[in-house]
Amino acid sequence: MIIREKLTEEREQLVSELVYYCSKEDRIIAYFLGGSLAKKNADEFSDIDFRIVLNADELKSAVLDALAKTFRQTIAFIESQRSFYAVIHFSNFVKLDIFAYYPEEIVPSLWLKDIVILQDTKDLLETAKTASSTIQYTLTQSDMCDYLSKYTAYLHEFYRRQFRQESNYCEHCTLMMKHIIISLWKGQEGHLPNDLGDWSKYEGDRSTLNSRQKQFMKNLTPINSHDVERSLHLMNKELLDTARDIVEGNNFQIEIDKYDSLLNVSFR
């Protein structure tokens, strides 16, 4: 049985074990934490986002294989493993996302602004983190076009699947449409949106949405199957209103009226 009250303690213990392992591994020259643990907004169910930097002549997959082998007694299963990362689930319900980098891949970025450096023998991480501190996210015209096109595509796909009575596919489409609306909200506020489909910190107690945004999403979760058209109308209006504000505020050359027409789907 998993004891919820012990999850945080067990995760901290695993982090300590990872740090000790890395300190004894000559192929690893630096390592750091990202994600919720680094930003100090984790709860007991948060993953360990652990990152390692290797000597340039080392093989990433070999180092990750060695790490997994060392911890094999406490690993429940490996969700996925590629040449440069692994997603590992431990028997105590703690999840580890580990990525491997080479020194030349550590460059200033939004992702490095809030990292917690655990070891940095060559000051690679500190230099990149300092340079990252001034980087701000800016929603581009290309981003806007992508979001509007994807939203429109999901709406059109919704109707196709609705006529085919494919309810789960319809639900998937509306989830993606709601996620795109949140992406526009975040972009408008100057915050980097999650990857499409990643709902982390968009819902629940750790949600970063404001009160109006939370209520809007709450009213549309789940979509009322008996009043779908009203829900779609509310979503379309929110998307277009937000898009117009962004386009006007940034002088983007995007014809919002074109999307208004594309979203006005009707059949006879």
From TrEMBL:
| Source taxon at top rank | Bacteria
The record's InterPro entries line, in alphabetical order, gives: NT_sf (IPR043519), Polymerase_NTP_transf_dom (IPR002934)
Q: Does the keyword Lyase apply?
A: no
- Tell me where in this chain the Polymerase nucleotidyl transferase domain is found: 21-77
A molecular function (GO) held by this record is: nucleotidyltransferase activity
Q: Does the keyword Transferase apply?
A: yes
Q: Which UniProt keywords apply?
A: Transferase
A Pfam family of this chain = NTP_transf_2
Q: What is this protein called?
A: Nucleotidyltransferase-like protein
